[in-house]
């Protein structure tokens, strides 16, 4: 069974990397990320597009749109034209990142939320084209809490203080961001929407379940949130996967810094070993029974039934990202 990693950022075709993907039988859905108002993200998108065209059995891709330009009355049309070009080049979805709601501001100085009317025609067009919308809106609760060495997100926020919102009274709260995201899901019921990273509700699968119950057009991926799942009661998490087996997508959110093809032999071997270990850790947690270790934390494996694993690993990605 080919496993689809439905959330990754790995744009390289190094032969050793391709051999590893073939050995593990994994296909990658590369996610384009827009971090600034310039057009540099297009270089990443073009690389992901080219990989998907040259190696369709191992790569697919998700595009994005420019950040909002409130001084440009043609912004939405410009974004839609770009999406149409990318959809013609087999992009299966559009991704919007956490800087919407947490960084980008409008001319009045207010944070631009995901339910801002400027996005409405874009979302309607994505639905009309039969593509999906991937939303990374908000962050884990730890983003708004004091740094805690025992929290799985301690390393990220200690290294990236610009994204740590604790003590910053002028930024939207976690609840504000989730509510805005939920309004978008509710207003676009004919649009398939995937909440990245368990919909930024990774601290409690019951909170994820509430959204899945409320919105039939909503699914989530587990990318970069295995440690959050591991810290919850394993029997509860297992039941969550079984109850929502059609709405959960596998993903790792591994990020390529230096391309493997540009590494020295020893560095390349180490990078490939880390990739293998990451997948093996995910597989162990989802498939095995008994004790497993997830990023240094010992928990119980979920031992999911084969039919559930097939959906999480492959079929759900094929359904929610048509064409992947």
Which key features would you list for this structure?
324 residues, alpha/beta, TIM Barrel, 8-stranded parallel sheet, 13 helices, 10 strands, 14% strand
Q: Outline of this structure?
A:
This protein is of the alpha/beta class and 324 residues long. The chain is built from 13 helices and ten strands.
Rg, alpha carbons:
19 Å
CA-based shape: globular
CATH topology: TIM Barrel
Structural class call reads alpha/beta
Distance between the termini: 15 Å
Architecture blueprint of SSEs:
Layout: E1 3-8, H1 15-24, E2 26-31, H2 41-54, E3 59-63, H3 75-88, E4 91-96, H4 99-102, H5 120-128, E5 132-135, H6 154-159, H7 174-187, E6 192-195, H8 196-199, H9 205-214, E7 218-221, H10 226-230, H11 234-243, E8 248-249, H12 265-287, E9 291-294, E10 297-300, H13 306-320
Parallel strand pairs: 1-2, 2-3, 3-4, 4-5, 5-6, 6-7, 7-8
Antiparallel strand pairs: 9-10
What does this structure look like?
The chain has 324 residues and is of the alpha/beta class. The protein has one domain: Metal-dependent hydrolases (TIM Barrel, Alpha-Beta Barrel), CATH 3.20.20. The chain is globular, with a radius of gyration of 19 Å. Helix 1 links the parallel strand 1 (3-8) and strand 2 (26-31). Strands 1-2-3-4-5-6-7-8 form an eight-stranded parallel β-sheet. 43% of the residues lie in helices and 14% in strands.
């Amino acid at each position: 069974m080919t496993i689809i990693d439905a959330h990754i950022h790995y744009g390289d075709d190094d032969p050793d990397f391709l051999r590893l993907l073939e050995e593990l039988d994994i296909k990658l859905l590369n996610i384009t990320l827009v971090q600034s108002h310039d057009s540099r993200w297009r270089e990443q998108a073009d690389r992901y597009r080219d990989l998907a065209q040259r190696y369709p059995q191992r790569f697919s891709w998700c595009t994005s749109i420019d950040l909002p330009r409130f001084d440009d009355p043609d912004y939405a049309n410009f974004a839609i034209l770009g999406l149409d070009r990318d959809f013609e080049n087999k992009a299966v979805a559009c991704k919007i990142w956490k800087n919407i709601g947490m960084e980008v501001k409008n001319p009045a100085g207010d944070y631009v939320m995901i339910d801002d009317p400027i996005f409405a025609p874009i979302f309607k067009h994505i639905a009309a084209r039969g593509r999906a919308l991937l939303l990374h809106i908000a962050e884990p609760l730890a983003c708004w809490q004091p740094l805690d060495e025992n929290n799985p997100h301690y390393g990220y926020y200690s290294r990236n203080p610009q994204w740590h919102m604790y003590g910053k009274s002028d930024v939207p709260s976690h609840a504000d961001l989730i509510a805005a995201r939920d309004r978008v899901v509710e207003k676009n019921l004919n649009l398939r929407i995937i909440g990245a990273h368990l919909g930024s509700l990774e601290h409690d699968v019951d909170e994820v379940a509430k959204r899945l119950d409320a919105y039939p057009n909503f699914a989530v991926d587990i990318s970069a949130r295995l440690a959050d799942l591991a810290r919850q009661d394993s029997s509860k998490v297992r039941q969550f996967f079984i109850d929502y087996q059609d709405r959960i997508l596998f993903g790792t959110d591994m990020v390529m810094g230096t391309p493997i093809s540009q590494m020295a032999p020893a560095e390349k071997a180490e990078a490939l070993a880390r990739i293998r270990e990451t997948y093996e850790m995910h597989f162990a947690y989802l498939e095995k029974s008994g004790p497993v270790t997830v990023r240094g934390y010992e928990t119980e494996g979920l031992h999911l039934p084969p039919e559930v694993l097939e959906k999480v690993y492959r079929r759900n990605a094929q359904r929610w990202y048509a064409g992947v």
